[in-house]
Amino acid sequence: MIQMPYDQIIKKLVANTSLSEKELNDKIEAKMKELSGLISKEGAAHIIANELGVKLFQVSAGLLKIKDIHPGMRAVETVGKVTNVFEPREFDTGARKGKVGNFIISDESGSIRVTLWNEMVDKLQKLEPGKTIVKIKGGYVRQNNIGNKELHLNDKSALTLNPPGIEITERRSERKKIIDLSEGEDSVELLGHIVDIFSPAFFEVCPVCSRRLKLGEKGFECQQHEKVEPALSYVVNVLLDDGTGTMRVACWRNQADKLFDNMLDLKDNNELFEQKKAELLGIMVTVRGKVTKNNLNGNLELSSFNLDTNPKMEKEVEELQKEVEELDNLKIEEEEIK
Q: Which residues lie closer than 8 Å to 208 by C-beta, 6 or more apart?
């Protein structure tokens, strides 16, 4: 089944009906009660969309924009520019062994992680972030541990590098202040200082698909790959202050590695963590990510997909000059009105 996040369903319904977000949420809540709570919020939203005559998915042959790719889709065809490439790794579950590698592509509508398996992993060596354009055919889409979509390629998929006649305009993350953020914004950039770092959390994941594992009677088990020898992943949460407020930022594995040289050295070594933490407190960073809401406390948080611990100050000075010019223009306008 093709899956669309609840916030995206609401946005699409607001854009295609005369109803407000509150009115739609009320309708969805009423539908859930009508069905005695035997349906999820997303399922109720799908029913309401059908009742209102709104098609949530426009599945068609040919190239899809990244924003139109959703978990559950198969035979996906898309193009994008490579923005990040990660180190490949080998795995051996006992029943199966091979290689897996990942990279990220973007277009003007969004970004997505692409996962390669076995022989296709060798193509990672030819990918240049910011330069290489890829065309993908025959991909299938899954949702990872933290709710983000991933495009997977297998031996029946095709990956073409720098196809002729295709140009990509990348989507730029919008620089914002913490005070101005709202839930669901999927590509924002913050500039601020790290004022606190929380102890890292380590957890077992499947060495094949990176899904979080459950400890069963026979050991660690993956929903897809059954019993496996687990790999270790981790997340570090930092508190960012930009002068308008503070926000908790989740730095998953690859982003955490940008803060600490060797994360695994910190496992069960709180003294070393505190030492490294002291070195990082107060540094200025830029971070790009998606704004989410913590279901436990209702606070907004940022799930990071790019962290820069050494932002280019020339760019930041330019941004500050723009802000100063905008403020000056507002003062002039106010004086003219008076």
A: 91, 93, 96, 98, 100, 222, 224, 225, 228
Three-state SS sequence of 134-167:
EEEEEEEEEECCCCCEEEECCCCCEEEECCCCCC
Q: How many domains does the chain have?
A: 3
Count Cβ atoms below 10 Å from residue 134 Cβ, excluding itself: 22
pTM above 0.85, yes or no: no
**Mean pLDDT over residues 285-289, rounded?**
92
Cα four-point dihedral sign 326, 331, 335, 338: positive
Angle at 63 between CA 62 and CA 66, to 5 degrees: 145
Residues 77 and 213 in one domain: no
Residue 112 and residue 80: Cα distance in Å, rounded? 9
Helical H segments across the chain, by residue range: 6-16, 21-34, 41-51, 253-259, 270-280, 313-337
For residues 127 and 188, state if they share a domain: no
338 pLDDT higher than 60: no
Q: For CA atoms 100, 132, 171, 70, give the dihedral sign.
A: negative
CA distance 9 to 30: 17
Going from the C-alpha of 185 to that of each of 11, 144, 177, 287, 303, the distances in angstroms are: 11, 19, 13, 14, 11
Phi, psi dihedral angles at 169 (to 5 degrees): -100, 110
pLDDT score for 332 = 62
* Residue % of the chain over a pLDDT of 90: 34
Q: How confident is the model at residue 323 (pLDDT cuts 50, 70, 90)?
A: low
pLDDT at 305: 85
In this structure, is residue 186 part of a structural domain? Answer: yes
Q: Which two tokens stand for residue 88?
A: 């490949």
Based on the number of CB atoms within 10 Å of its own CB, is 230 exposed (0-12), middle (13-18) or buried (19 or more)? middle
